[in-house]
Specification:
The complex is a heterodimer of chains A (314) and B (542).
Chain A (H helix, E strand, L loop, with lengths): L1 H28 L4 H6 L8 H11 L5 H13 L5 E2 L4 E2 H36 L3 H8 L1 H7 L2 H15 L12 H30 L2 H8 L4 H39 L4 H11 L2 H29 L12
Antiparallel strand pairs in A: 1-2
Chain B lengths: L1 H27 L6 E6 L14 H10 L4 E3 L6 E3 L2 E6 L5 E6 L13 H13 L15 E8 L2 E6 L6 H4 L10 H4 L18 E7 L3 E6 L20 E6 L3 H9 L5 E3 L6 H6 L3 E3 L6 E7 L9 H9 L3 H8 L29 H10 L3 E2 L5 E3 L2 E2 L1 E5 L7 H13 L4 E5 L3 H7 L8 E6 L5 H7 L23 H12 L3 H17 L3 E5 L5 E3 L3 E2 L2 E2 L5 E2 L4 E2 L2
Parallel strand pairs in B: 1-10, 1-11, 17-18
Antiparallel strand pairs in B: 2-3, 4-5, 5-7, 6-7, 8-9, 9-10, 11-21, 12-21, 13-19, 13-20, 14-15, 15-16, 22-25, 23-24
The chains are: A mainly alpha (314), B alpha+beta (542).
InterPro entries (chain A): BPD_transp_1_N, MetI-like, MetI-like_sf
Organism (chain A): Rhizobium straminoryzae
Pfam families (chain A): BPD_transp_1, BPD_transp_1_N
Chain lengths: 314, 542
């Protein structure tokens, strides 16, 4: 087990390095650079000579390799560089933007799981066939709703019309209610769909027929016999959904005017703020790798069949 | 008894009248207190004062910094502020300012001649080691001299008649020596910007929120203001809210007091509910389309004229904008200094346009697009994000030009491609453009190759230019920037407008305002000459 974990961590570091290198190369290949974009902005009204002087001051010029090595060395030291557009160090931006996004993502994900389980449970426990069918179509509806539209609708209805929550200047918890609701919907949809499908599949298995024959109730069958088996595919998809969570956060944060990694990324992309993008890519990759590692480690705990030593290959 | 009643009646009436007028007066008398919630569309960037041209920066700097002089937004005259008086020599190469005594920065240090001298040394010359760029409004700067603690003198290498107005603009806000000792890199942190203004930065959440609080000992408003003491508001809270519908919804729902950037199509909704639209003019070069004549397709003046004639400004304004966006009648706004009415030269005439294109040798091909020697008249422009509904404007212009057989491709593109391609006339033959500044220098800023170089001339900002250069135009522009005689300078501004339109280098479309909206109880909103809000006189009647 220790060897397995160590090899997985080694792989994770390799993935991080690859993410760093690839993103560095791709970002360098883009036309223009952040200094040019910021200072050619007519609002500054700078002459070409002045812009050249600034470029030299920021040392944007230099060979690709020296820039790569310098950036990599700085990253290893924990120095993420300087955001040319915002005029502050990237670490200062991360300090402000990372915690709210983690909070939003964690709560959004928890709400999505709750919502998905509720939908899945209703879809197999609801009393009438037509109701079960209706519930089963909810995930498709959820997946089709554009996040920005949902966010704006929730704001218009709950904040501007009913005045239940304030969007501008809200309290710490008040500020999370609508964004979490918005973010959870597109995440809940695929989770619920996978859950419903695996529940349906497991229901056709012989051991369920045995349980039914023994006289177990629908509810008991669902929770005791089906749920444990149906959760594995959902767990796999949950790891992958992390990417969705980041994409959802970009839109949610923009619509609600929250600060966070999503908005930071969106602005950095627009302004080619390479240091920021580089940091975001590496942090996202790290989060992705960690979550998938956790998911893999959870499998053997949830499913005894995976606990054999031969199962410990990646 | 009855007598007394009769006698008293007028007394009561009088008393009632007095108390009524007292109430009326109370409704107009500023009340102190309250925090203004201001929704910004974008986060501020670097708050080095010369970077105040960017509206989110200017909206903050205008509250926390003061300037040497105040430009009256109505008359555009330059009035005393931190400078009580000034002298300019005959050829505008030496400026002497006498400062108001007793002014301090919010860190307690005095705003004296030494501080002012240091500010303008940096604005005029930049600082390579601290990475400070030069200010756009300070031209030909040579050096400063501290004559006594309250007198400072500036020397210029060449006549700089625009400098006096340059001391009044947002980019010339004065900051403490402590701020200027920091490298440029660190000025993205608003708490480090120490000015002498009526408000000071209390706290900031990067990219999201900024809180200003009133400075209790402030006592140096512009000399002609009745109000001199501290601001009426206790504070201002800036909240970055990027989404248009959320900004407007929050204002109408009472969650915010004042917002920036209201699109024309949202105006009726705001006004319909008794809220107020503020659309101060930016008083500079109008929202326009400019040509890059280095590209052969638009090198012929007849082609440019034809496209000007094919542009229907009235349709653009009535389709996309509102009464706050007046149709352009010259290169610069009708409220700009030195404006001359050229509406006669800015007609809409499709027949004439077609005729000119025929004369220029462009004939319609099978797909309707004109071509000459096998080269199709297909032009390309990138949309300009800061300008209101620019994409829609360009698309409408593309439809209008299509009627005379010219195709205009409108590209969005990422910031990098846009910035790089914009330097190459072969890739962007036309471009949207505008600049705001209430001084005749603005027209030079826009078109002079060493400044914004809107036409992309050889020797200007781009190394991709093969041959295009217009010495006559540049001569007129240099005259604007360096002619110390006021009348001759205004004549040069008139000449520049006439020449730019005669050559059809630019197609002015409308006079661009900055659009804000405020709640009905927000009183005393003022704007500097180029449309940045000032909250010094603002109070909340609620």
């Amino acid at each position: 087990m220790t060897r397995y974990i160590l090899s997985r961590i080694g792989q994770a570091l390799l993935v991080l390095w690859a993410a760093f290198t690839l993103s560095f190369l791709l970002l360098q290949a883009m036309p223009g650079d952040a200094v040019l974009i910021k200072f050619l902005n007519p609002d500054y009204g700078l002459s070409p000579e002045q812009i050249q002087a600034i470029r030299e001051a920021y040392a944007v010029d230099g060979t690709l390799l020296t820039q790569y090595l310098k950036t990599l060395a700085n990253f290893l030291k924990g120095d993420f560089g300087y955001s040319i557009q915002a005029g502050v160090p990237v670490s200062a931006q991360l300090a402000v933007n990372l915690p709210p996004t983690l909070m939003l993502a964690a709560l959004g994900f928890a709400a999505a799981v709750g919502l998905a389980v509720l939908i899945a449970a209703l879809s197999s426990l609801a009393p009438f066939a037509w109701l079960r069918n209706l519930v089963q179509s909810i995930p498709s509806l959820f997946v089709s709703v554009p996040v920005f539209w949902l966010g704006i609708m929730l704001i218009q209805i709950f904040s501007f019309r009913l005045k239940l929550v304030s969007v501008i200047n809200p309290g710490p918890w008040e500020s999370l209610v609508l964004p979490v609701a918005t973010l959870s919907v597109p995440i809940a949809a695929p989770l619920a769909q996978i859950l419903i499908r695996s529940i349906d599949e497991i229901r056709t298995r012989p051991f369920i027929a045995v349980a039914v024959a023994k006289g177990a109730t629908q509810r008991r069958i669902l929770w005791r016999h089906v749920a444990g088996n149906a959760i594995l595919p959902a767990l796999t998809i949950a790891g992958v959904l992390f990417g969705e969570l980041i994409a959802g956060a970009v839109v949610t944060e923009t619509v609600f005017g929250l600060n966070g990694i999503g908005v930071l990324t969106e602005k950095a992309v627009g302004n080619q703020d390479l240091s920021v993008l580089q940091a975001v890519v590496v942090i996202s990759a790290a989060a992705f790798v960690t979550i998938n590692l956790l998911v893999d480690l959870l499998y053997p705990i949830l499913d005894p069949r995976l606990r054999t030593p031969s199962g410990a290959t990646a | 008894m009855t007598l007394r009643k009769h006698l008293l009646a007028p007394v009561f009436a009088l008393a009632a009248a007095v108390s009524l007028s007292a109430i009326a007066a109370a409704a107009d008398t500023p009340v102190q207190g309250g925090t203004l919630v201001y929704l910004e569309q974008q986060a501020h960037t670097n708050l080095y004062p010369p970077a105040g041209g960017f509206y989110p920066n200017g909206g903050i700097l205008n509250q926390i910094t003061d300037k040497l002089t105040y430009q009256n937004p109505q008359t555009l005259e330059i009035e005393p502020w931190l400078a009580q008086s000034w002298e300019v020599n005959a050829d505008a190469t030496q400026y002497t300012f006498k400062l108001r005594p007793g002014v301090t920065f919010s860190d307690g240090s005095p705003l004296d001649a030494a501080a002012v001298a240091k500010n303008f040394d940096i604005f005029g010359l930049g600082d390579k080691t601290l990475k400070y760029p030069v200010s756009e409004v300070v031209n030909n700067y040579d050096r400063s001299e501290v004559i006594d603690p309250l007198t400072v003198k500036f020397y210029f290498k060449k006549p700089s008649p625009g400098f006096l107005q340059g001391t009044a603009v947002i980019g010339s806000g004065l900051v403490s020596l402590k701020t200027l000792a920091l490298p440029f890199d660190q000025l993205g942190d608003a708490t480090k910007i120490i000015g002498s203004g009526p408000f000071v930065v209390a706290s900031e959440t990067l990219g999201k929120e900024l809180t200003l609080k009133a400075r209790p000992d402030y006592n140096w408003g512009p000399a002609k203001f009745e109000h001199q003491g501290r601001a009426y508001l206790d504070g201002i809270k800036y909240i970055v809210t990027g989404e248009d519908s959320v900004r407007i919804g929050a204002l109408l729902a009472g969650q915010a007091d004042f917002i920036r950037q209201v699109q024309a199509y949202d105006e009726p909704q705001v006004e319909g509910q008794g809220f107020k639209i503020y659309a101060p003019s930016t008083r500079g070069v109008n929202n326009s389309i400019v040509f890059r004549p280095d590209n052969q397709l638009v090198a012929d003046v007849r082609v440019r004229k034809a496209l000007s004639l094919a542009t229907n400004r009235k349709e653009i304004v009535s389709t996309l904008f509102s009464k706050n966006y007046p149709v352009a009648t010259s290169v610069i706004a009708s409220t700009a200094i030195g404006y001359k009415d050229h509406s006669a030269d800015l007609g809409f005439d499709l027949d004439k346009a077609r005729q000119l294109l025929d004369e220029a040798g462009y004939v319609a091909g099978p797909d309707g697009t004109r071509a000459k020697d096998g080269k199709k008249l297909v032009l390309t422009a990138y949309e300009s994000l800061p300008q209101p509904q620019n994409r829609a404007t360009l698309q409408l212009i593309a439809q209008q030009w299509a009627k005379v057989g010219v195709k205009l491709n409108v590209l969005a593109g990422d910031a990098g491609s846009r910035t790089v391609d914009d330097l190459d006339p072969q890739k962007t033959s036309v471009s949207p453009a505008m600049v705001g500044r209430a001084d005749p220098d603005v027209i030079k800023s826009q078109f002079y190759p060493k400044n914004r170089d809107a036409l992309r001339q050889k020797g200007g900002g781009s190394d991709k230019i093969q041959s295009f250069v217009d010495d006559k135009l540049n001569g007129i522009l240099e005259e604007i920037a360096s002619q110390p005689d006021k009348q001759k300078r205004l004549q040069a501004v008139a000449d520049a407008q006439a020449y730019l339109l005669e050559q059809a280098y630019a197609i002015p479309i409308f006079e661009e305002p900055q659009a804000f909206a405020g709640a009905p109880y927000v009183k005393g909103i003022a704007f500097e000459a180029v449309g940045r809000p000032s909250f010094y006189n603002v109070w909340l009647a609620k």
